[in-house]
Design brief:
alpha/beta; 7-stranded mixed beta sheet; 7 strands; 17% strand
């Protein structure tokens, strides 16, 4: 636990593929990153949820389209300096990373949801046990944490889904705080994030107690 329980270092934004379809929405999101950085956030994970199931041709197509759109906006519009990465999940073929000059990173994640991630970890562990590569006694919270795709613990989750929760990073976000935006992504302003951060800092975090 941090010395300052309300220190906001890691932010998770949960979005839907439809959030990126409006004109200027992706550009507007990138315009928010300097304010988020200057507010003390060191890592932003942008989760994009898709309507189509993992492995489907439609999800693969949309993943490629959004990946190229996000990459092109970053290269053409963003001047804030950051480490930038697009992650499509293991074996997805979607990968882009650009090192930044400042202690600020953004990861766009389009891989499997949290339930599928935990399922994969458990199935792999069972197979390793059968093959003699692992011992059942090895399965504990530390084992799961060590095999997560995203080994980060978000302090705050900001959602565009109007009170709809996501199962993404379900293991890592058990003690995260939620904040729901009341407007579409293309209309977000720095003031909206200022309100979200103020709400976070004014909460009494109980960490499950």
């Amino acid at each position: 636990m941090k010395d300052d329980e309300n220190q906001l270092e890691t932010l998770l934004l949960t979005l839907n593929e439809s959030d990126f379809l409006s004109a200027g929405s992706t550009e507007n999101l990138f315009l928010r990153f300097p304010f988020i950085r200057d507010s003390g956030v060191e890592l932003v994970i942008v989760r994009i949820d898709f309507l189509s199931p993992d492995g489907s041709a439609e999800k693969n197509r949309m993943t490629r389209l959004l990946s190229e759109k996000i990459k092109s906006v970053f290269q053409a519009k963003y001047e804030g300096g950051m480490s930038f990465q697009i992650y499509g999940g293991k074996d997805s073929g979607i990968s882009f990373q650009s090192p930044g000059k400042e202690n600020f990173s953004v990861i766009f994640s389009m891989g499997p949801g949290g339930r599928d991630e935990l399922k994969t970890i458990l199935l792999t562990f069972i197979q390793d046990c059968k093959a003699g590569k692992a011992n059942p006694a090895d399965m504990d919270p530390n084992y799961i944490s060590a095999h997560l795709d995203m080994p980060f613990t978000p302090d705050l989750i900001v959602s565009s889904s109007k009170n709809k929760l996501t199962d993404y990073m379900i293991w890592q976000t058990v003690y995260s705080e939620y904040y729901f935006m009341s407007k579409e992504m293309e209309k977000w302003t720095n003031s909206d994030f200022k309100d979200a951060f103020s709400a976070f800092h004014n909460r009494e975090r109980r960490y499950g107690v």
